[in-house]
Automatic annotation (TrEMBL):
Molecular function, one GO term: 2-dehydropantoate 2-reductase activity
Superkingdom assignment: Eukaryota
Family matches, as InterPro entries: 6-PGluconate_DH-like_C_sf (IPR008927), 6PGD_dom2 (IPR013328), ApbA (IPR003710), KPA_reductase (IPR013752), KPR-Related (IPR051402), KPR_N (IPR013332), NAD(P)-bd_dom_sf (IPR036291)
Record keywords: NADP, Oxidoreductase
Claim: Transmembrane is one of the keywords in the record: no
Family statement: Belongs to the ketopantoate reductase family.
GO aspect biological process, one term: pantothenate biosynthetic process
GO cellular component assignments: cytoplasm
Protein name: 2-dehydropantoate 2-reductase
Native organism taxonomy: Eukaryota, Fungi, Dikarya, Ascomycota, Pezizomycotina
Ketopantoate reductase N-terminal domain sequence ranges: 7-164
Length: 366
């Protein structure tokens, strides 16, 4: 038995692996990582990490690695104090985060930390796990898995951690706040990263959306990184800055008074010389699904509800939806009729649902 906090990591790409490494470096957490595409590589060789915060690390493995999410109702299974979710949030593709973590959650005990981008990501989680603290993690790290098990971490790990609140939660707000503070101290224990308790999670998420809802989508569609856009100038002035102002106006209508200076801060926030590709651009390049619903779709739906015009965002959303359809087709999730065959329907989706389930998703509460 150990008195360390038992953490289950789901999503061991760049961000997740660095979080796991940092938690274990602090000496207070024992991490079990669920690996998928990199499982075999990491089992044999461990992770090779080149990190701006932690230096060069070879053959590192978290305390345990698993190939699938454990079911804590199995006899003898350990229970997890924290589930740290660092997967992409792609609610239009199954399995959604709720489905993924369902077997590993112990009601009334496990804190669920969503270290993920986007808006309203907590709603289906709180609905499914109303007795668990659900914690927001807003990350500013630059970390990429360049090949299976190889991580390049070149922009410092800074995270904001706070409690999500919702009237449907069945635990007092104070309990979620306490759980968020406990996680923030666990994450800070290494002394190598910046982890701050965040008392206004919604504000921080809207602030970060100024970057994610604009750069992520535009870099993904055009294939241009953020440094090149800044060097050329016109991609920023013609496309990025106007989109940022749209998000800023929606945030203001929601009651979040972001300073005007946030626009320039976000434009310039990536180190100039890293030719940084936001995660959505990296996903498109790898042929992965893109997390555009919570990053672009949700702020757009908020704008529609509030009557705030967001034509640029609307166009970007449409383009990203087209990209997602192409990715679905490339993965065999869409069937097209043969050329010249009038008897088959126009377009068919197989295996996966093509609906945005998002916050309205009904998953039986645990
Ligand atoms: C913080 C940043 C820019 C890198 O992790 C990000 O959120 C993203 O690329 O999606």
């Amino acid at each position: 038995m150990t008195d360390k906090t038992n953490v289950l990591l789901i999503g061991a790409g760049g961000v997740g692996t660095m979080a796991a490494y940092n938690l274990e470096a602090g000496g207070q957490a024992s991490v079990t990582a669920v690996l998928r595409s990199n499982y075999s590589a990491v089992k044999v060789n461990g992770f090779t990490i080149t990190s701006i915060d932690h230096g060069f690390v070879k053959e590192w493995r978290p305390t345990h690695i698993l190939h699938s999410v454990p079911d804590v109702s199995n006899e003898g299974s350990p229970i997890y104090d924290v589930i740290l979710v660092t997967t992409k949030n792609v609610p239009d593709i199954s399995p959604m985060v709720v489905e993924l973590i369902y077997p590993a959650v112990t009601p009334n005990h496990t804190s669920i930390v969503l270290l993920q981008n986007g808006l309203n990501i907590e709603l289906p989680i709180i609905a499914a796990f109303p007795t668990n603290p659900v914690i927001s993690g807003v990350s500013l790290i630059g970390a990429t898995e360049t090949s299976p098990g190889h991580i390049v971490h070149d922009d410092r790990d800074r995270i904001l951690v706070g409690a999500f609140h919702s009237p449907i939660s069945q635990i007092p707000e104070g309990k979620s706040i306490a759980a968020a503070k406990v996680f923030a101290s666990l994450y800070s224990a290494s002394g190598k990263v910046s982890c701050t308790y965040d008392s206004n999670v919604a504000f921080s998420r809207w602030r970060k959306l100024i970057y994610n809802a604009t750069y992520n989508g535009v870099c993904a569609i055009t294939g241009m990184d953020t440094s090149r856009m800044r060097m050329a100038g016109f991609p920023i002035e013609d496309v990025i800055r106007p989109l940022m102002w749209e998000i800023w106006r929606i945030a203001r209508a929601k009651g979040h008074e972001l300073p005007e200076s946030v626009i320039q801060d976000m434009i310039d926030c990536d180190p100039w010389d890293t030719y940084f590709k936001p995660s959505m651009q990296q996903d498109i390049e790898k042929g992965n699904f893109i997390e555009f619903e919570n990053i672009v779709g949700e702020p757009l739906r908020e704008a529609e509800k509030l009557g705030i015009p967001a034509p640029g965002l609307n166009m970007l959303y449409g383009l990203l939806k087209i990209k997602q359809l192409q990715i679905k087709e490339s993965k065999g999730l869409v069937i097209l009729p043969a050329k010249g065959d009038p008897t088959r329907p126009m377009l068919q989706f197989i295996k996966q649902k093509d609906v945005f389930l998002g916050p309205d998703c009904k998953f039986e509460a645990k």
